[in-house]
Design brief:
Elements lengths: L7 H8 L20 H11 L18 H14 L4 E8 L7 E12 L4 E5 L23 E3 H9 L6 E3 L5 H16 L9 E2 L11 H14 L6 H10 L6 E2 L1 H10 L2 H4 L3
Helix pairs in contact: 2-3, 4-5, 4-6, 5-6
């Protein structure tokens, strides 16, 4: 809701009056509700009835696509349905040209024996805007981060990517590593990135870039490459010393000692 323009349609159909959203609450509560557990607690705190339809804005969490993805994944896993969050880029306009950074899920359809791509973020859950449901999207709607990375590295990606960092490859690298972590059931927050990327992707050697190429190739088929992915997960330490901007401030002020204990 923090980036959604008020409209009579949205207010009447889904949320109630946007103006009633409490002024003391953050317009984006992502940093308050990073995990599925914290979101569930927040949902019941705002409304003792918990999950339900037709809630107004005063009883809703205001979070982004990542949070929606990991919460939905947790719910399906709890019900015995294999599910995984994926980080990448979504074609919201359905033009096949412009893709925006986004998180979705893949859940396993036992009847059809396949992973189904679903976007659980947004308000259009029962609207067939483009001739299909958001709970079973065609693959061309979403570019997995690994596909975007390899496309940029090999100069084969002919799509416009709308991403926050000014360095496109660096922004895609962040999503590549978030997708990797998510596939290993460790869905890191947007601002959590390996410390070795602090100086920017331009500081990486060609050998280090090739290591990321190899990771991306494995993530193209996570089921078929699970053993090699798990090996990287268990051995590639520099990809798992995570930092964010606040920790960098402490590191600059107090030196390496503030981070060494957490390694």
């Amino acid at each position: 809701m923090y980036f959604t323009e008020p409209s009579a349609y949205l207010e009447d159909t889904y949320y109630g009056k946007f103006a009633s959203y409490p002024s003391h609450r953050f317009k984006n509560e992502d940093e308050l509700y990073i995990t599925a557990v914290s979101m569930i607690a927040g949902i019941f705190y705002l409304d003792e009835e918990g999950f339900g339809e037709n809630k107004d804005v005063t009883k809703r969490l205001t979070v982004s696509c990542r949070q929606a993805s990991i919460l939905f994944s947790a719910i399906l896993k709890a019900k015995g349905i294999p599910c995984r969050s994926r980080a990448g880029f979504m074609d919201f306009d359905n033009d096949g040209d412009s893709y925006v950074e986004h998180w979705v899920i893949e859940y396993w359809d036992f009847g059809e024996n396949r992973w189904v791509l679903a976007d659980v973020d947004g308000y259009y859950e029962y609207e067939e805007r483009f001739g299909y449901s958001q709970f079973d999207l065609p693959r061309h709607k979403f570019i997995i981060a690994s596909e975007a990375w390899l496309g940029l590295r090999r100069h084969t990606l002919h799509k416009n990517l709308d991403i926050y960092p000014t360095n496109l490859l660096e922004g895609v690298c962040e999503y590549l590593l978030m997708d990797f972590q998510a596939l290993m059931n460790n869905e890191i927050f947007y601002s959590y990135q390996p410390m070795y990327l602090r100086s920017g992707i331009q500081a990486l050697s060609e050998n280090e870039l090739c290591e990321l190429d190899y990771l991306a190739e494995l993530l193209e088929d996570p089921d078929g490459n699970i053993e090699r992915i798990e090996h990287i997960w268990n051995t590639k330490d520099e990809w798992f010393v995570l930092m964010n901007n606040t920790q960098y401030i402490y590191q600059d002020a107090f030196g390496e000692s503030c981070t060494s204990e957490g390694k």
